[in-house]
């Protein structure tokens, strides 16, 4: 009986040691594979940076100087870069990066394993790039007539329309300009926008997503990102509503009850900015003034935090919160800026 147990233990020991040796062997192999992956990633990252830089310069040349020649060139460069990315992707996928130990290296491989819009066949990619270029050209070239002189019809987004929104406080002029420009530039972009969505959805499918919405949400690297946003919105909504009511009250004081209702939405054309990239509540700073000691504090905040977006936070921080919270906010902004600009 005793002998049987010893033999069994010896057997188990022998089997276990075989496994340990096997594991050690493959651990070494895995370490070598990971080191090779690291070297490869360094070269890939460098060549991709160069390619993206080339693509960005060509796009900039087109966007800042919209000519047929520059458009054609931008398209060519974008297609060449897509080709290069496709080639690199094939090599990237030969690495067993799922097995790597270093989470950061794994994450880089994970990101490079998604080919993005370069996954599209060249003809579809060309349609996607053309749709984007057309929308940019429409945006830059759309013209409307002057509010005061309807025979003068050469007003463009830059500089005339932007200027009107920055300077005019005539609610009728602002409304007219807002509607006319959206008719001229928005409606004219519809077909290109539909093409853009269709091509992007094709690219999403080639990258393993059901839709471009799912693809973009994956960038947050959180399976429940939508639930997280909903929870954040619930949290911030009371503050948002107070800022909204505050801005609306000041706009009522400026434009009158006939133009801005007491309880309804804020008319977009009154917010002093023509193009809302960030939020419709990035209202003109002057609306938040006069605040006690506000200008000096705002200047200090902008210099210290080094970000224009702090204007909005400043309005909310100084009006809705106690002033003591402003330094906290600065610390948050600074760390966020540092994180985005390593
Ligand atoms: C605009 O692009 C054209 C090429 O289409 C070029 O000849 C011209 O010099 C560019 N203009 C400026 C101001 O860069
Ligand atoms: C239209 O006329 C008003 C009043 O004279 C003036 O304030 C405004 O700047 C003019 N707008 C344009 C676009 O010239």
UniProtKB/TrEMBL annotation:
Cysteines engaged in disulfide bonds, as pairs: 145-153
Its EC number(s): 3.4.-.-
Note on how the cofactor is bound: Binds 1 zinc ion per subunit.
Annotated binding of chloride, by residue: 220
Keyword Metal-binding attached: yes
Glycosylation positions in this chain: 65, 148
Record GO biological process: proteolysis
Entries under Pfam families matching the protein: Peptidase_M2
Keyword Glycoprotein among record annotations: yes
GO-annotated cellular components: extracellular space; plasma membrane
Assigned keywords, A-Z: Carboxypeptidase, Disulfide bond, Glycoprotein, Hydrolase, Metal-binding, Metalloprotease, Protease, Signal, Zinc
GO molecular function: carboxypeptidase activity; metal ion binding; metallopeptidase activity; peptidyl-dipeptidase activity
Required cofactor names: Zn(2+)
Signal peptide: 1-17
Family of the protein in this entry: Belongs to the peptidase M2 family.
Protein name: Angiotensin-converting enzyme
Source organism of the structure: Pararge aegeria aegeria
Taxonomic lineage: Eukaryota, Metazoa, Ecdysozoa, Arthropoda, Hexapoda
